[in-house]
Amino acid sequence: MQLAMIGLGRMGGNMVRRLVQGGHQVVVYDSSADRILAHAATGATGAKDLPDVARQLVPRRVVWVMVPAGAPVDSTIDQLVPHLATGDIVIDGGNSNFSDSLRRAKALLAQGIEFVDAGTSGGIWGLTQGYCLMIGASSPAFQHCEPIFRTLAPEGGYAHVGPPGAGHYVKMVHNGIEYGLLQAYAEGYEILHASKQFTLDLGQIANLWNHGSVVRSWLNELAERVFSRDNQLAAIRGYVEDSGEGRWTVEEAMRLDVPAPVITMSLLARFRSRQQESFGAKVIAALRNEFGGHAVQTK
User: Fold this and answer.
1) Beta pairing class for 114-121 and 132-136
2) pLDDT truncated to tens, each residue of the chain (299 aa)?
3) Closest to 11 (Cα-Cα) out of 80, 64, 75
4) Rg of the chain on CA atoms, in Å
5) Which strand (E) or helix (H) includes residue 73?
6) Would you say 164 and 198 are in contact if contact means Cβ atoms under 8 Å apart?
């Protein structure tokens, strides 16, 4: 079927490639003209601007937006809407806050336009392995767009989880769980790395755990790949960013009075990773010296 993809970064660009390979007609637009030309060379159709995107689509138009969450999504939709018509569909596949998706769905519906939020997981591996799609939509919009989802996802890898907003809600919690899993692996491998009694090959251990262990997983397969290249991770700085969805998961857990200590602490550990030196740790060291005479290290 025909659709447009706006945003040709790592995720959006690979999704275009998978869709073109699957036989879809894809109109593409990005702020980078070079990206547009690169995808046009592989079978997509380039657009010069957002109005041109709409002009090239045959009603019922489907426009997939794959831009950073927040203001860029609102700006893109605001520029598109004057060129869309009743029954057209806008899909947001980025990491938007579900409350923003609820707001956008309501505003678009008032203009006769359907909004679909597609929580998308798969990263750079999605091109070859497929994307897991958590889709919030009305039933008619989901059914109309299902050929797109079927092409992008592996078998069993997409689901209509509820009305607009539900897709990004499920993706938010998905990413919160991801935070906890990553932190558990990080702490385990750090203990192994810090051992004074044994010199351990982390790549070997990761490979071992991927064969029959209860902690085997795709994340641990990626750990095996990483350690096989650099067992000490010497070239990597321990700075960990967050997309915002871990924060939103913790906020939602607090709103619902649901205890989520693992996800919460994994989020706080990311904050700690961004400090060159913790002032809080300095306070603790100073107080231990004051009440117990414990030694402090000086610069």
Assistant:
1) antiparallel
2) 999 999 999 999 999 999 999 999 999 999 999 999 999 999 999 999 999 999 999 999 999 999 999 999 999 999 999 999 999 999 999 999 999 999 999 999 999 999 999 999 998 899 999 999 999 999 999 999 999 999 999 999 999 999 999 999 999 999 999 999 999 999 999 999 999 999 999 999 999 999 999 999 999 999 999 999 988 888 888 888 888 899 999 999 999 999 999 999 999 999 988 888 877 788 878 888 888 788 888 87
3) 64
4) 23
5) helix 71-80
6) no
**How far apart, in whole angstroms, are the C-alpha atoms of residue 7 and residue 164?**
21
- Residues 114, 92: Cα–Cα separation, whole Å: 11
Token digits of residue 6: 């706006």
Supply the residues annotated as catalytic.
Answer: 171, 178
What is the spatial distance between Cα 70 and Cα 95, in angstroms, rounded to a whole number? 9
261: number of Cβ within 10 Å: 10
Confirm if 116 and 142 have CB atoms less than 8 A apart: yes
Distance of CA 185 to the CA centre of its chain: 19
Say if strands 2-6 and 62-65 run parallel, antiparallel, or are unpaired: parallel
Evaluate whether 60 touches 88 at the Cβ level (below 8 Å).
yes
The β-bridge relationship of strands 158-162 and 132-136 is parallel
Structure tokens at 168: 């990004």
The CA distance from 198 to 194, in Å, is 9
Cα separation, 183 vs 179, whole angstroms = 6
Closest CA to 36 of 266, 272, 45: 45
pTM of the model as a whole: 0.93
Q: Determine the Cα angle at 66 with ends 60 and 70, to 5°.
A: 110
- What pairs with residue 65 in β-bridges? 6, 92
